[in-house]
Write a structure and sequence with these properties.
Blueprint lengths: L11 H10 L1 E4 L3 E7 L7 E4 L8 H18 L7 E7 L8 H14 L2
Parallel strand pairs: 3-4
Antiparallel strand pairs: 1-2, 2-4
Length: 111
């Protein structure tokens, strides 16, 4: 399964709105900011990883793990949710299952 453009957050304004108006959930390996919008059908994901996290291959690995976890969890997530994921300092050795557990917390909180 791929990661379609409709399931991505692409614009700076979308990220800023989530940071400003959204809720925050701090998991074991990621910080998740999210907002529920009724206008979108698919859950949408945006990932931000700064250079402080590490070298480019570390940042890219983290993004791959998060995208795969999102693909696995997206059927469980509520429609119209926009999610912004940031790594925590403890996420250098994160596994996909760790991120899946953090994403499932959102699904449980928004039923």
């Amino acid at each position: 399964m791929n990661f379609p453009k409709a399931a991505r957050l692409l614009k700076r304004g979308q990220f800023q709105k989530i940071v400003k108006e959204g809720r925050r959930l701090t998991g074991r390996v990621v910080t998740i900011q999210y907002i529920k919008k009724e206008t979108t059908l698919l859950p949408q994901l945006g990932i931000t990883v700064s250079r402080k996290y590490g070298k480019a291959h570390d940042r890219n690995r983290f993004k791959r793990i998060v995208r795969e976890a999102f693909r696995e969890c997206s059927p469980d997530l509520p429609q119209g949710i926009q999610i912004h994921i940031l790594p925590r300092s403890t996420s250098q050795d994160a596994k996909k299952q760790d991120v899946v557990l953090d994403l499932r917390q959102i699904a449980l909180n928004n039923r």
